[in-house]
Amino acid sequence: MSTVTFGYRISDGKIEIDPVNGKRVKHIFKDYLSAKTLTDVTLNNGFKFHGAVKRILVNRTYLGTDGYPQLINPKIFEQVQTELKNRAIQLGRTNLPSHQVKFYVQTKFKFNRSHHRYRLPAKQAEYMYQLIESEESANCLIKR
């Protein structure tokens, strides 16, 4: 037994739009474009996990492929894809390959003079670590 994509059902051997869940899918796309977060869209549409909603938002089947009728307008689908990408960039979640990520590693440090002594070793260690400063001119770029 195979399953069909959420928002569709099989009737008389054909895939058709499920009247209830099809509306939910359309509502998910509409909600996301109205600047709601994935979490908000998830809660408003009765899902437990935002990952399920994200999979709906990126599923090209809703454009009418592989024998499925079109459920989402291509223009709306592309707007959602653009918005997903923009929000991912804003949140720093771009999943770039590691060879495109630059790391700046400090290679030179200086230790400022200590003026206090604490009785508790943990407090003294915390204070001593605060005295360590990096020298700005010593940045070393590492590309992966």
In terms of structural class, how would the helical and strand content be classed? alpha+beta
Please give the largest β-sheet: 2 strands, antiparallel
Q: Structurally, how many domains make up the residues? A: 2
Radius of gyration: 26 Å
Question: How is this structure best described in words?
Answer:
Strand 1 and strand 2 form a beta hairpin. Helices cover 40% and strands 17% of the residues. The two termini are 45 Å apart. The protein is of the alpha+beta class and 144 residues long. The protein folds into two domains: 8-90, Hect, E3 ligase catalytic domain fold (Alpha-Beta Complex), CATH 3.90.1750; 98-143, no CATH class. It has helices at 19-33, 38-44, 50-58, 74-90, 121-130, and strands at 8-11, 14-17, 102-106, 109-111, 132-134, 139-143. This is Recombinase domain-containing protein. Residues 5-90 form the Recombinase domain.
Q: In summary, what is this structure?
A:
This protein is an alpha+beta fold. It has helices at about 20-35, 40-45, 50-60, 75-90, 120-130; strands at about 10, 15, 100-105, 110, 130-135, 140-144. The chain has 2 domains: about 10-90, Putative Large Serine Recombinase, Chain B, Domain 2 (Hect, E3 ligase catalytic domain fold, Alpha-Beta Complex), CATH 3.90.1750; about 100-144, no CATH class.
